[in-house]
Design a protein that fits this description.
Elements (H helix, E strand, L loop, with lengths): L22 H9 L5 E14 L4 E7 L8 E4 L3 E8 L8 E3 L23 E7 L4 E6 L12 E6 L9 E10 L8 H10 L67 E4 L9 E4 L4 E8 L6 E5 L4 E6 L2 E8 L1 E4 L4 E7 L3 E9 L4 E9 L19 E2 L19 E8 L8 E2 L10 E3 L4 E8 L5 E5 L4 E2 L6 E2 L1 E4 L4 E7 L5 E6 L2 H6 L2 E6 L1
Parallel strand pairs: 1-4, 3-8, 9-12, 11-19, 16-20, 21-24, 23-31
Antiparallel strand pairs: 1-2, 4-6, 5-7, 7-8, 9-10, 12-17, 13-16, 13-18, 14-15, 14-17, 18-19, 21-22, 24-29, 25-28, 25-30, 26-27, 30-31
This protein binds CU-O-CU linkage and copper (II) ion (CU).
Copper (II) ion binds next to loops.
Length: about 500
């Protein structure tokens, strides 16, 4: 029973590809040994959210931002009923999970839209422990506040820790000045032609962050009241990103007035309480639509233990970089005092904040103070190695799928191989193959590329991931075993790039 709206995928499927709800998909699910049911009810609804002294009208799961975390145990069958109280069709996508294809939540590919007023039951086995999240796969709805963490616990968890803190990062535009992500998308899709940006390289745009009409006060963390002067509405609200020292090129194409940790502004941050000496597992999730965050915890080193849910050989870092959709788990041993967990919006001169407090000592961290660790030793995914038991065994690829990342901000013509997303087009793969995905970035911007339904390995015994940043002018080759039949999306996790065309489908034959 897949709920009232199941029965059609909505898109004309080319012949020769496995269906999302075919017998191969059911057989793959049976091999996961679906266990006890974990039932969850979710309502996607229009609501008023308090970001900490600033209320906005937006869309969310329930009345909270992020939505209520879903927590389950490895082997459980997750049974989530989604009620759609939005004025638009929606779906739920389970980011990072290797799940049955017909539950992957891609409208027109793996399921029909869940229409306004309708509901749909998602039901699938949880085959891997780790830190995941969920969001709609419908337009740019995710960027309105429809997201929440999904934690799959491992009953044989080898890590020892006292406390756990789930930290979700987000850039925020919705309801601030009457605008919405859809309006931003429409403006981007109309193109940036009216703006003086010299052919879209964007490198001359750094100075724009100081232009009139771009009031950055709320973004610089210098202590001004959030929302005191919302950005001017209209085209001037968009800007090419400033250059990021880490990412090069353009760091972003939408000017976000706010940056949030767990739905809170830096002026009213969430405080996480612990005791000095506690070992804290921090699960970091970047749910932003268009922002990479550099994250550090003042006064502490981070021991990286997982990337996108999968264990790595532990590595110490002072700062981490998370592209949109990426997750990192870290361990810290809490010191005595109050410490800022700061997320710097790369290239945007803005920060988001949460606070770790132990005991009574220490003044509250000032949102304007950036911990020195932010500029300390930065660890990126390419420097990590997978833990031995999740390493992808060495094997020559049976097939290489070459995807050139193309397009630019000027025309918002983001695409793979120069072709904008067409739900009827597929890149074929076959069950049992070792597949290499080769992403060649010919654009001036970095892109976090994401594969559904699988985790890939970065080169050289690199970490297992489902989302990885491809820097401008570079090629990233990742490998995965084609062991989960169906139709699976590959796309940039900048929601505006995906929605304007940088998205395609891998189809099992
Ligand atoms: Cu978060 Cu298609 O993904
Ligand atoms: Cu992109």
């Amino acid at each position: 029973n897949h709920g009232p709206t199941s029965g059609t995928t909505g898109a004309a499927a080319p012949a020769g590809y496995l269906a999302p709800n075919g017998p191969e998909v059911a057989a793959a699910e049976a091999r996961r040994n679906p266990g006890p049911e974990r039932k969850v009810a979710l309502t996607a609804t229009e609501t008023t959210l308090d970001l900490g002294g600033r209320t906005v009208r937006s869309w969310a799961y329930g009345d909270r931002l992020p939505g209520q975390e879903v927590r389950a145990t490895l082997g459980d069958t997750l049974a989530v009923t989604l009620a759609n109280h939005l004025p638009q069709p929606t779906t739920l996508h389970w980011h990072g999970l290797a799940l049955r294809n017909d539950m992957d939540g891609v409208p027109g590919v793996t399921q029909a839209d869940v229409r306004p007023g309708a509901s749909f039951e998602y039901r699938f086995a949880l085959a891997h422990p780790g830190t995941y999240w969920f969001h709609p796969h419908s337009g740019v709805q995710q960027d309105r506040g429809l997201y929440a963490p999904l934690i799959v616990e491992d009953p044989r968890e080898p890590l020892a820790y006292d406390k756990e803190w789930v930290v979700v990062l987000d850039d925020w535009v919705d309801g601030v000045d009457g605008s919405t992500p859809d309006a931003v998308l429409a403006e981007l899709a109309r193109g940036m032609g009216g703006m003086d940006h010299s052919g879209g390289s964007g490198h001359d745009m750094a100075g724009m962050t100081g232009m009139p009409g771009h009031d950055m006060a709320g973004m610089t963390g210098t202590g001004s009241a959030p929302g005191g002067t919302p950005n001017a509405a209209g085209p001037s609200r968009m800007l090419m990103g400033a250059q990021s020292p880490l990412l090069g090129g353009d760091a972003g194409d939408v000017a976000y007035p706010f940056h949030l940790v767990n739905g809170r502004l830096a002026t009213a941050p969430e405080t996480f309480a612990a005791k000095p000496g506690d070992r804290i597992r921090i699960r970091l999730v970047n749910a932003g639509g268009d922002t990479a965050y550099r994250v550090a915890l003042g006064g502490h080193e981070l021991t990286v233990t997982h990337t996108d849910g999968f264990p790595v050989e532990p590595a110490t870092a002072q700062a981490l970089l998370l592209g949109m959709g990426e997750r990192y788990d870290v361990l810290v041993t809490a010191k005595d005092g109050a410490f800022p967990l700061t997320a710097l919006a790369e290239g945007k001169n803005a920060t988001a904040l949460a606070v770790l407090r132990t005991g009574g000592g220490g003044a509250a961290p000032d949102a304007a103070v950036r911990p020195a660790e932010l500029d300390g030793r930065l660890v990126t995914a390419g420097q990590l190695r997978a833990a031995p038991d999740v390493r992808l065994p060495a094997k020559a690829p049976d097939r290489t799928v070459r995807l050139e990342l193309t397009g630019g901000m000027a025309k918002a013509d983001w695409a793979f191989n120069g072709r904008r997303y067409d739900p009827a087009q597929r890149y074929p793969v076959a069950a049992g193959e070792r597949v290499r995905l080769e992403f060649r970035n010919s654009t001036a911007m970095w892109h976090p590329v994401h594969l559904h339904g699988h985790s890939f390995a970065l080169p050289g015994d690199g970490p297992r991931k489902d989302t990885a940043v491809v820097l401008p002018g570079t090629t990233l080759a990742v490998d995965f075993d084609a062991d989960n039949p169906g139709l699976w999306m590959v796309h940039c996790h900048n929601v505006y790039h995906a929605e304007t065309g940088m998205m395609t489908v891998l189809g099992y034959r």
